[in-house]
Amino acid sequence: MSLRPETLRGVTITGTGMYVPDQIVTNHDLAKIVETTDEWIVERTGIRARRKAAPEQASSDLALIACQRALEMAKVDPKDVDQIILATTTPDRILPSCGCTLQRKLGATKAAAYDVFAACTGFVYGMGMARGLIGGGMADTVLVVGVETLSRIVDYTDRNTCVLFGDGAGAAVFQACEPGTGIHAVDMHSDGELGEVLEVPAGISRNPANEHTVAAREHFIRMQGKKLFPFAVRSMEDATRKCVERAGWSTDDVQVFIPHQANLRIIEGVRERLGLPEDRVYVNIDRYGNTSSASIPIALDELVRSGKIKPGDHVAFAAFGGGATWGASTMTWTAPVPSYAPVEAAAATGGAA
Ligand code: ACO
C-alpha cells in the first residue's frame, strides 16, 4: 500500500562509481598516535583500516573520479546531466559550493549543482531528491554523489572519534525507467533536537574561526557515540520497514540490504531486528571505516561491479547521521539497461508505482 503520492514516471540508477584515496591507515598506525589497540577497534567497531586523502586532494577531486566512473557506466555525457546533488559534510570550501566546483571539473555545463548537508544520510536524501525531480518531470538525468574527506575534520588526538572515520566518494546516475520498477520508496527524517550529539562546534556563523576556536580544537568532530548508538539502530530499522511496506514487500523479500557503515555492531543490530540473514547484508566497514555520505554509494558500486546485484533484485538502503538525520529506500534493481518512459507516456498510464 502506498502512503505518499506516486511519481509520474519510474526512477532508477543507471550507473555507479566510487573512488577511495590510495593511502591506507590501519588500526596499528593509529595505535602509534593515540592510546588504542587493533583489538579494541575491531571488537567495538569492526573497522580494520580506512583511507586518507593525499594533502593535495579535496572532496571535489574524490567526487570527480567517482562521478566519471558512474557516468561512464551509464553511458551519459557530463553535458547531459541536468542536476548534480553533492552530499557532504566536508566540502572543499563553504563558497563556492562543492557541487559547483565538481560541475566545473566534470564539464557538466548544463547542470544545476548544489550541496546537501545531511551527514551520513546525505546519499539517501539525494536519492529522494533525484526521485522527486525525475519522477515529477523536472529533470531527466541527476547525478548524486556522496563524498567526504573526514580526515580533515577528525581530531587525531581524540581516540573516541579518530579511529572511526575514512575518506572516499561514491556516485550514482539516476534516470527515468518504466513505472513500477526502479525506486519504490524513499523515507527521509530529521530531528534537530539531537544536533549536539555529533557536531563541529566552530567555523561558521555561530562560532567563527579565531585563535581561541583553533586552540580549543573546535574545528574538529565531537561525538557522543553512546547516545547515537541505540538511536542509529532504531531509526534505520524503522525507516527500512516503512520503505519495505511501501514497496509491497515483507523484509523476507529484501535480497540485498545496504546499510550506512558506521559500526559493525550497529549494522548487526539492524540486521537482527529486521530478521535478515547475514549473507543479504553488505559490509565493507572493515576496509573503509565510516565514510559518512559516501558509504552507501561506495558499497553499491562494489556490489554492482562484482555482479552481486542483478536486475530484478530487491534492494534496500538505510542510513542515519548527524543532525540527526535518517532515512531509507527500496528499489528493484534495473541497471545497466534502463528503459526510458517519457513524462507524457507515464502520465497517460497513470504514473509510477
Ligand atoms: N581505543 C580504546 N579505548 C577507547 C577508544 C579507542 N579508540 N575509544 C573509546 N575508548 C574507551 C572510552 O574512553 C571508554 O573508556 P572509559 O570507560 O574509561 O571512559 C571505553 O572505551 C568505552 O567507551 P564507549 O563509548 O562506552 O564505547 P562503545 O562501546 O560505545 O563504542 C563507539 C564507542 C564505537 C563510538 C560507539 O559508541 C559507536 O559506534 N557509536 C555510534 C557512532 C556513530 O555511528 N556515529 C555516527 C557518525 S555518522 C555521521 O553523521 C558523521
From TrEMBL:
Under the heading InterPro entries, the entry gives:
ACP_syn_III_C, ACP_syn_III_N, FabH, Thiolase-like
Record region (ACP-binding) = 261-265
Is Ribosomal protein among the key words of this record? no
Tell me the ranges covered by the Beta-ketoacyl-[acyl-carrier-protein] synthase III C-terminal domain, including all copies. Answer: 245-333
**Looking at the UniProt record for this protein, which Gene Ontology cellular component terms does it annotate, in alphabetical order?**
cytoplasm
Active site per database record: C120, H260, N290
Keyword annotations for this protein, in alphabetical order, are: Acyltransferase, Cytoplasm, Fatty acid biosynthesis, Fatty acid metabolism, Lipid biosynthesis, Lipid metabolism, Multifunctional enzyme, Transferase
Name the Enzyme Commission number(s) assigned to this protein.
2.3.1.180
Keyword Lipid biosynthesis found? yes
> Which GO biological-process labels does this protein carry?
fatty acid biosynthetic process
Which pathway does it serve?
Lipid metabolism; fatty acid biosynthesis
UniProt GO MF annotations: 3-oxoacyl-[acyl-carrier-protein] synthase activity; beta-ketoacyl-acyl-carrier-protein synthase III activity
Subcellular localization, per the record? Cytoplasm
Instruction: Indicate the segments forming the Beta-ketoacyl-[acyl-carrier-protein] synthase III N-terminal domain, all copies.
Output: 114-192
Q: Where is this chain primarily localised?
A: cytoplasm
Q: Which reaction does it catalyse?
A: malonyl-[ACP] + acetyl-CoA + H(+) = 3-oxobutanoyl-[ACP] + CO2 + CoA
Q: Which family does it belong to?
A: Belongs to the thiolase-like superfamily. FabH family.
The UniProt subunit note reads as follows: Homodimer.
**UniProt remark on domains:** The last Arg residue of the ACP-binding site is essential for the weak association between ACP/AcpP and FabH.
Q: What's this protein's function?
A: Catalyzes the condensation reaction of fatty acid synthesis by the addition to an acyl acceptor of two carbons from malonyl-ACP. Catalyzes the first condensation reaction which initiates fatty acid synthesis and may therefore play a role in governing the total rate of fatty acid production. Possesses both acetoacetyl-ACP synthase and acetyl transacylase activities. Its substrate specificity determines the biosynthesis of branched-chain and/or straight-chain of fatty acids.
Q: What is this protein called?
A: Beta-ketoacyl-[acyl-carrier-protein] synthase III
Organism listed in the record = Eiseniibacteriota bacterium
